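[audit] Reproducing an earlier prediction to check determinism. Same input, same settings, fresh worker. If the tokens differ from the archived copy the diff job will pick it up downstream; this log only records the rerun itself.
[audit] input (350 residues):
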Amino acid sequence: METHDALTDVRGLRVGHAQRAGDGWLTGTTVVLAPEGGAVTAVDVRGGGPGTRETDALDPRNLVERIHAVTLTGGSAFGLDAASGVMSWLEEHGRGVQVGPDPAQVVPVVPAAVLFDLGRGGQWSARPGPDLGREAAEAAFRTEAGAPVPQGCTGAGTGAVVGGLKGGVGSASTVLASGTTVGVLAVVNAAGSALDPVTGALYGELFGGRPQAPEEDTHAEAMRRLTEAREETARRTAGPLRPPLNTTLAVVATDAGLTRPQAQKLAGAAHDGLARAVRPVHLMHDGDTIFAMATEERALGDGELNDLLAAGADVLTRAVVNAVLAAESVDTPGGIFPSYGDLYGARRQD
């Protein structure tokens, strides 16, 4: 199967986006659709201001073994309504925990997490609801197996911002020596920065051995423009309803068979990759949340878990870089959010 350096390289997973931009809107929803039988899933929340739904169901001590979709969405706590649309779509397609004698009597399990993007399009009440959740689920279902994942200002990344830069959706994957695939999808929306303020290099690239620091003059001009954008955004949004709330969300997945405790360990290890690519992270005004999914297509080899944990962190670092490089500048009544590419010159995602 052709690979695309994306979460969907983990066979059986599909990704769908839905978004609204313009007329006061700048937000969206992303759905990771599990295979029909569901996927073993866990979560690790490290931000101080998370907004989540159904994460208690993922506790290894609890009943649910597999979930049917993960919803990542804008809209802060209001955006949790998007998961209702995903549940409705799954129910109509007979996907869920069967709770009655009729095959249609199912309860889909759809963990969700939100990021803060309220007002970034100019309208405070413009936020995802069940309609966007359903649209994203349908978009995921329509994709072909192993399809590329659209990145940048799409889905839950539509209104994402990282340290004043435009954030967005990024994805990446790798294949271990054993043949096991590890993939990540990240929605980068952080109070911290993805770039080194001294050099302009992306933090995440420092760990890949290929730092691409801009020329000093280019960096100085970029920082001047970024400062102006921040000042103009502050002017446009002056008032008591603009707290510095953010949150980066991610799904790390593998085709290996993991127990729920092992999946939870994978989610926790992946946070290391986020900490390499964004500084600082896990603040009180972030709600950083990472889900780990295992489709169980392959047996986990002896001693392979450590390799898989390390890969999850590494791939998440790359996914953050890809998100920042794929983002495009946005200018709305809610603020000016320049992209890294516009400030430093567009270049290819590696």
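[audit] rerun output stored. Observation attached for the diff report: Residues 304-326 form the longest helix (23 residues).
[audit] end
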